[in-house]
Structure formats: C-alpha cells, structure tokens
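thought: fold this chain, then report.
action: predict
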Amino acid sequence: MDEHVARLEPKVDHIQSDITDIKADQRRIEAKIELNGADTIFSAAENPRTSVTFPRAGTYVLELRADDGELTATAEAIITVSDPTTYTGPLRAAAIGHTRRTTWVSFTLPMLPPADAIATLRIPIGNVLAPGEIEVHSVLAQWDTRSLENGQLPQVDATALAHYAVGEDDTGLVIELDITEAVSRWSLLDAAKGLAIINVSGDVHIAHRSSDIGIRLD
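observation:
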C-alpha cells in the first residue's frame, strides 16, 4: 500500500498559540486522528511538532489536545491528501505529425490520471475546405515524424473512439471529444500513448502545432 506523508508543522504552530495558557512544563500533548477508523500514523503523537503518514488519499480531520491537569484545550486541522501516483492536469501533445488524411498525436504522462478521470480531447479546427467527418482512433505502436515521412505508419485500432461531423461553422473552433476509453488503458510503461485523428470525408484541416492539441482531465 502506498503511503502519503504530509508535514503539519504550520498547523501545529497555529494550534500551539491557542493553548498558551496551559503550563508549558506540565503540558501533555496528545494527537489523534478521526476519520472512519483510518490507519493514520503520527511520528511523535506527544510532540506538537510532528509528521503524520496517511495510508491513502482522502480528507482527514486531525485533533491536537493539550492538558496540564488543570486546563485542557483542543484544536483541529483538516488535511486533504491527494494520490501522488495520479495526474490531474491537462495533457499537452508531445509530438504531432501529418500524413495525407491523418493527424498523428502522441502524449507523455508525468503520472497516471485517476482511475475515474474523464478524458476529453480538444481539437482546434483550421480551415474547412469541404464539410466532412473526422474520427479519433487509438494508435497501437510508437511512431515519430521521420517514420511518417518514410511512409512507415503505425497500426491504429480499427474501432473509432469518437467521431464528429465538421461543418463550415466549425472553422476556427475547438471541438471536444470523449476519449476516456483510450486514456484509461494507457500505462506509464506503454510507449504507444497516441491518437490518430482521421479525416474520413470532406477536407478538414487540423491545427499543425502540438501545443494546440490537448487532453483535459475531469
């Protein structure tokens, strides 16, 4: 099980200021966790400056209690821990290539997206010389611009992930297509994290810069 560590010193300093009436030489510090019985571990539960290890991502309520035998005081801190093995930011295209009717796009992942993330491909439409349809397919092999120039095209999945009927009114717009099915299959070790945007019919120009095409994760 992965562990997620969060340092709480800033919160503890604030909590200490609320319990200064308690005699410092007799102060007894007790830290505890309350959240559905989560197995959270404090490195030093009796020290107001401590670190805590969380067993999983989630929202935790930490309580600091001080007691000198005469006075007691408590304070809470709410900590949200995200999973460090997942990535929730936008994905920009790492490389882009063009053949006669296909735009090839590859991506790199700094970390895997969350398992429940919805992935939306954003495609900027250039000139629409003739209305038609585009389809998005998963690319099943690694490629680079040189291999495309030499006519060595990577294999693509025969089943389209998404399709869109492009009209003249789409010129200059950014269309969005759900490609969650493809992104959910990507792994950090898989070199083939790419998509093929195929101009099935008509004459539709897709943006030529890799920075223009991206994936939004929700």
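thought: worth noting. Helices lie at 9-17, 145-149, 180-183.
final: tokens above.
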